[in-house]
Each structure stands twice: as C-alpha cells, then as structure tokens.
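Notes to self after the call with IL:
- keep both proteins in one doc
- input above output, always
- annotate only the second one for now

Protein 1:
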Amino acid sequence: MSAVMRLCIDNTTIRAAPPLEYHTLIAELRRIGGNLNQIAHIANSTGQINAAAYMKEAAEMRRVVLAIRTAVELR
C-alpha cells in the first residue's frame, strides 16, 4: 500500500501489468531480430542477401508485432 501511495505522490501513472502473452511475444520478437541480424551480417560479409530468409523473417515480424498490438489493445 505504501508503494502505491509513493507512486501517486510522485505523479506516476499506475498501469495494469501486460498480459502474460505479451512477454512471450516480446521473446519471439527478439528471436526474429537475432535472425534478421544474422541475415544482415551474412549480407555485409558476402555482398549477397538470402531474400527468401529475409522475407520469411520480415513476415514473421509483422505477425508478431500485430499480435503484440492486439495483446496490449493498441489497435
């Protein structure tokens, strides 16, 4: 109770915790980011990009971002 009161006094907005699904989706987004980073690293060192792998990861990223937005009701 005292922690809540201190937050109110500090003019901080108290928000509900995000749904558990949110954290799972964030972990997926980090995994996808790592995959995209590997694709970029290979492209920088070889001068060639694996377009199919890039398109797959980009589509997966779009799917996860939409799921995150849905999970936190930002639509």
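Protein 2 (the one to annotate):
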Amino acid sequence: MAKRDLPHDHGDALPDTLEHMPDAGAFAAGAATFQQLSDPSRLRIFWLLCHSEECGANLAAALEMSQASISHHLKSLRLHGLVHNRREGKEIYYTLADNSTARLAHQMVDDFFCLTCPTEARKAHENKGPAMAHGRGGAGE
C-alpha cells in the first residue's frame, strides 16, 4: 500500500502499519469467518465438531434442534471452510476442518470460554501415570 499523507503526524506507527495492511478482500474473508461464529447455534455446533466427529442426526439430538436447522448450519460452516464432512455409507460425518483458520477459530473459542479442549484433556489424561490420572499428586491438592 502506498504511503498516504495523513492530517496529523503522530509518529511512524500508522504509516508503517498501513504498508502491511491486507487488502479489502482479506478483511471481507475474515469477517465472513467471524460471521459464522456469531450465530449461537453455529457456535455450539462448531465447538462440538472441534472435539468430536458426528453425524447430523446426533448433533440434532444433542442440541435439541431440527435436522433441517442442523443441516443449514453445517452447510454454512462447511462452505466457509470451518468444518469438513465425509460420507460413510448413507451417513455423513462432520468434524473440524484441517486448516489454519479452523484451528485458530477452535483455539479462540476454547480460550473465550476459558475451556480446556476436551480432546487435549483426554490426551493429557492418557499420558499421565495412574497416580496423576486419578488426581493424586497434582498442584493444589
């Protein structure tokens, strides 16, 4: 981006930052990703799929939503690259997409809710010895 004449000179931070600013299309793509997570139902679906692979019927039952509503949200999340699907016979299973945007959104959502990712907690639990796995010998006990 070309240097701009600014009405006030407050130092070099803004002009230097503007030189590295992405184009408007990149911001539109970022906003579209955030829009996906701005819907509470999609956010719940996304969070579940970050931690497990599920079919639409199980998601509908777990979240007490209609199949049609779940399908609508899954399509939107898939089209925006946040979830991935695979077919096994007549079932379609969904999970977190394997890309940096989906992983970053997963981390952001877990951090926002101050949650430990259940998948990571299971891994940590499996890697601990029997004493640690049952809560003995940890900090604060």
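Annotation: The beta strands are 54-55, 83-88, 91-96. Confidence is low (pLDDT under 50) at residues 130-141.
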